[in-house]
Amino acid sequence: MTDPVRLPDARPYLPALPPGTLVIERSYGMPGRERRVRALVAEAHGHGLRVLVAGDPALARACGADGVHLPEGMARSLPRHALRGLRLVTMAAHGPRAMAAARRIGADAVLLSPVFPTQSHLGAPALGPLRLGALARVYPCPVLALGGVTPRNWRRLAHMPGVIGWAGIGFAARPASVRPHPASE
Fold it and tell me: Where is the Thiamine phosphate synthase/TenI domain (predicted)?
């Protein structure tokens, strides 16, 4: 996931990601967003990666992105027709109500967070592995674990039913030369 402060440009890290990885572009409202999204999509596709544009289905379609990532609040108010023509739809979720909303809109996956304490949401209560697993079992929508997930603690989550992967910012915000490839752990 990109982040306007910690990871505003993911392009230098794209070659280190395994093919098929989703890159979620989240530069909400920043000037030049369309230009940045187009550049990211072109480069990511060249590496066999997929790009989701956060919060803007029209921009995702216009830039040839693979889909859209919806913030939790936006998914509740977005008309279903706004998602037509998008190959992938993911949604942020922080609990049961959002998981149910993801099911209602037909999301392909949810990013459930925060699983562990994280720099992105200092002081926010973490779900922990047990609650993550319980939510993933109850709601039939594939889950990507987000929030404080590292290659080491991912091992605690990797075999949970319904949890299909993990997402993050912090692990990628270090130079590629010192960042372990998630698939190699």
Answer: 35-167
